[in-house]
Design goal:
The protein has four domains: 114 residues, P-loop containing nucleotide triphosphate hydrolases (Rossmann fold, 3-Layer(aba) Sandwich); 49 residues, Arc Repressor Mutant, subunit A; 142 residues, Four Helix Bundle (Hemerythrin (Met), subunit A) (Up-down Bundle), CATH 1.20.120; 57 residues, no CATH class. It starts with a helix and ends in a 6-residue tail after the last strand. Helix 9 runs antiparallel to helix 15. The chain is of the alpha/beta class and 470 residues long. The strands form five sheets. It has a six-stranded mixed β-sheet. It has 17 helices and 14 strands. The longest helix has 20 residues. Strand 13 and strand 14 form a beta hairpin.
């Protein structure tokens, strides 16, 4: 969205410049949520002074719907309302949360009009007809629960002992398909057994204020001796984008980002950023110099501390593989896989017969497996040497055997001759997002986010190995 805002600012500036010197000076200011705080403060600056010729200066704020209700800017006289907004909408059929352009509601239109005339009379210019306003626009914005992934909601309801979700008295009842997808996700994560009952692992996952996949990943990281690193990665995934890319210095920002880049992908790049932030004593100046959002890093640090306390409460060990070990990064990537089995893509190299056979075998196993034995069981782990002493705890088993791993492989994809990734189950054509640090197309890719814009992108990607699945 910020690229569209920046482009609009440029076009307005060009149009004003073409009008000649008789027009007053103009200050054009972008506003969106990922803009650094110091740049967001520019919206409160006064407009340019009046010219000697008498032409008055103007301030123009080009904003997302963050300006709709979140703040009031003094001196706004005119509002131009295009009648659209970008909203996150979850599609349960393909398990994708997309940022889509949608028509706003009448309530939103009234809020936008209210931005003008706070300190003096003003006007709102609506770029749609009165007929469209009266007959086509909804009275209120579609409730978030009706357009969201309900995995976390269902997990919390199960934790509270509410099992009859179909007849639960939601203020805005979600679609049955959305509920079924949430139950399916939690079953894949072994948070629910095949009868829909909460497992011990699921009960533990519900204590983490995270998406179920991230909660599973944090718990599973104990098995791979990398819980410290997974805590940091999870915290970084839980806050707004940390990389800043100002339009006027894109090249410098991209070069700064590549200094943190890890060859295996974006998750480990985020880990590098967090480690560097801590090594530089949480310096705001260091963040500024490296085009890093200081507020996001501080939020991530707070999230990490909160998650650490929850782990301590459950006696989950916080530890790391020795950095000099060849398994240091391998263990981290394996732990990532345990939380995001559903969000992996396979790429078979062009003409790679072995890759094609592997893909076919996965499909056969996926559809022939009898899932009667699925569900979390308990096993005993011994974490000797953690904090200088041995620790024996009972922890829900992360893997439920080979068969349980196979049922995760429903969101895999292979690389077609076109160079795109294709999901195996839903046949969704996707591409690596341009923001990834990966400079190649790995055979298998795990991703954190599916972005549906003009193209289908997968964002925050990491190279993984097929043997970690089968």
């Amino acid at each position: 969205m910020h690229t569209e805002i920046d482009e609009a600012c440029k076009r307005i500036k060009r149009e004003i410049d073409d009008l000649g010197p008789e027009v007053g000076d103009i200050k054009i200011i972008p506003l969106y949520s990922t803009l650094p705080p110091q740049q967001q403060q520019r919206i409160f600056e006064p407009p340019p002074p009046k010219k000697a010729s008498g032409a008055i200066g103007r301030k123009v704020v080009v904003s997302t719907n963050i300006a709709e209700t979140s703040l009031t800017i003094d001196g706004v006289v005119f509002v131009i309302d295009p009648g659209f907004a970008k909203q996150k909408v979850y599609n349960p059929r393909i398990r994708v949360e997309s940022l889509l352009v949608t028509a706003i509601s009448k309530a939103s239109a009234q809020q936008r009009a209210g931005r003008a005339g706070r300190t003096r009379p003003g006007k709102c210019f609506r770029l749609y007809t009165e007929k469209a306003y009266k007959t086509e626009m909804q009275d209120n914005t579609y409730p978030e629960i009706l357009r969201s992934n309900l995995g976390s909601v269902v997990l919390q309801l199960k934790k509270l002992g509410i099992d009859d979700l179909v007849h639960f008295d939601f203020m805005d009842p979600p679609a049955p398909e959305t509920l079924m997808r949430a139950l399916e996700l939690l079953n894949y994560l072994a948070a629910l057994n095949d009868d829909g009952d909460l497992t011990e692992l699921g009960s533990m996952m519900a204590e983490f204020p995270l998406d179920p996949q991230l909660a599973k990943m944090v718990i599973a990281s104990c098995e791979y001796n990398c819980s410290n690193e997974i805590l940091s990665i999870t915290a970084m995934l839980s806050v707004p984008q940390c990389f800043i890319r100002p339009t006027e210095v894109k090249k410098a920002a991209d070069e700064a980002k590549m200094r943190f880049a890890h060859i295996d992908g974006d998750h480990l790049t985020l880990l590098n950023v967090y480690h560097a932030f801590k090594q530089n004593h949480e310096s705001s100046q260091w963040c500024y110099d490296n085009f890093i959002n200081y507020r996001s890093l501080m939020s991530a640090d707070n999230v990490r501390q909160q998650l650490s306390r929850i782990m301590d409460r459950f006696n989950l060990p916080r530890r790391s593989t020795d950095f000099t070990s060849r398994d240091y990064y391998v263990n981290i990537r394996k732990a990532l896989v345990t939380g995001y089995f559903m969000q992996a893509f396979i790429a078979s190299a062009l003409g790679n017969a072995a890759g094609t056979r592997l893909l076919q075998r996965l499909k056969e196993q996926m559809y022939s497996y009898d899932g009667s034995r699925r569900g979390a069981i308990l096993t005993q782990y011994n974490y000797g040497g953690w904090s200088g002493r041995g620790l024996s705890i009972r922890l829900p088993q992360i893997y439920c055997g080979r068969a349980a791993q196979l049922r995760w492989i429903i969101n895999v994809a292979h690389l077609e001759r076109t160079g795109h990734y294709l999901t195996v189950k839903d046949n969704q054509v996707v591409q690596l997002h341009p923001s990834t640090v990966l400079d190649h197309k790995p055979e298998w890719v795990l991703y954190n986010e599916f972005v549906l814009t003009t193209k289908n992108y997968i964002r925050t990607c990491t190279d993984i190995k097929p043997e970690w699945y089968v």
